[in-house]
Specification:
- The protein has helices spanning about 35-45, 60-65, 70-80, 85-100, 115-125, 145-155, 215-230, 235-245, 265-280, 280-290, and strands at about 5-10, 30, 35, 50-55, 100-105, 130, 135-140, 160-165, 175-180, 185-195, 205-210, 250-255, 260.
- The strands form three sheets. A nine-stranded mixed β-sheet has the order 5-4-1-6-11-8-12-10-9, sandwiched between helices.
- Helices cover about 40% and strands about 25% of the residues.
- Helix 1 (about 35-45) packs across helix 4 (about 85-100) and helix 5 (about 115-125) crosses helix 7 (about 215-230).
- It is globular, with a radius of gyration of 20 Å.
- It has about 290 residues and is α/β, with parallel strands linked by helices.
- The protein has a single domain, classed as Spore Coat Polysaccharide Biosynthesis Protein SpsA, Chain A (Alpha-Beta Complex), CATH 3.90.550.
- Strand 2 (about 30) and strand 3 (about 35) form a beta hairpin.
Length: about 290
């Protein structure tokens, strides 16, 4: 069975980007001419996803406002002869309709596994994609589609991977690679979180994209149950994947394309510049200014 459902955890406060994110959700910060979460939604819709759950918290109403219809604004734009702007507003709503976006408030312990479990309770007993909303991928084949293709080959959980400079290992989760297959697909037996370069088990980094199966959801549920018993620690998706991988097949897929992280100021600026330079209208202008 192919994957039709996806989760975007969007409940974080964006602390690394404060004070920029004090009033604006980090998911609504622009990369190029679109907020970063719209890049993620477009990637999912282009990959055939028809059910998108965005897990939110207080202060995230701008996300809903962005994707909901605004007929009064469209009517005003058309009355003013601004047809292209009206079409653009309607196109964003149509994007959300194609993805059948629903919103869910996050409840439970701290950690990025909690929104995945929150969404899984409403999405049913199926595999689903999980994409973080502060990543932008530029690829001929969308990252989401590459993950779906890998899942259809393996019928197992899949992690998005990128080649990594070993000196940067302390920034990432690094997979333990058991077997390299074809086209960037590899069997993995776990992840080491932010190891020192000498301790990195491979030269790949796990970056923002997962195919999560019911077995991993069950492990997340056990972690949350334990948290409510002991009230200590946090619930992380990578911990559940590690435990699951000890006794079950898990795979990594090296993603073909460019990855831009927008979760911290330096990488956000890089994503902004890269997007502008790649734009057919703005790119030549900026290059001319730099000459």
């Amino acid at each position: 069975m192919t994957i039709r459902k996806a989760v975007i955890p969007a409940a974080g406060i964006g602390s690394r980007l404060l004070p920029l994110t004090k009033a604006i959700p980090k998911e609504m910060l622009p990369v190029g001419d679109k907020p970063v979460i719209e890049h993620t939604v477009r990637e999912l819709v282009a990959s055939g996803i028809t059910d998108i759950t965005i897990v939110v918290s207080a202060g995230k109403s701008l996300i809903q406002d962005h994707f909901r219809p605004n007929p009064a604004l469209v009517a005003q734009l058309r009355a003013d002869g601004k047809q292209a702007y009206a079409d653009a507003v309607e196109e964003v709503y149509e994007l959300g309709r194609q993805g059948h976006i629903t919103y869910l408030d996050q409840h439970g312990p701290y950690g990025n596994g909690t929104p995945v479990l929150n969404a899984a309770r409403t999405l049913g007993d199926e595999a689903m994609l999980v994409l973080w909303p502060d990543d932008v991928f530029v690829a001929e084949v969308p990252r989401a589609q590459q993950l779906i293709d890998a899942y259809e080959k393996t019928d197992a959980p899949v992690l998005a991977l990128m080649p990594m400079d070993p000196a940067e290992s302390q920034r990432y989760g690094v997979p333990v690679v058991e077997q390299e297959l074809d086209n960037g697909l590899m069997r993995i037996s776990g992840l080491k979180e932010k190891p020192k370069p000498a301790d990195a088990p491979s030269s790949f980094a796990a970056i923002g994209g997962y195919v999560v199966t019911p077995g991993i959801v069950a492990e997340l549920r056990r972690q949350v149950d334990n948290w409510y018993t002991h009230r200590t620690g946090e619930v992380y998706l990578t911990d559940a994947i590690n435990i699951f991988a000890a006794t079950n097949p898990v795979y990594g897929q090296v993603i073909r394309g460019r990855w831009y992280d927008t979760g911290n100021p330096a990488d956000y600026l890089v994503a902004q510049f890269a997007s502008a330079l790649n734009h057919p209208e703005y790119g030549p202008l900026l290059r001319g200014l730099c000459e």
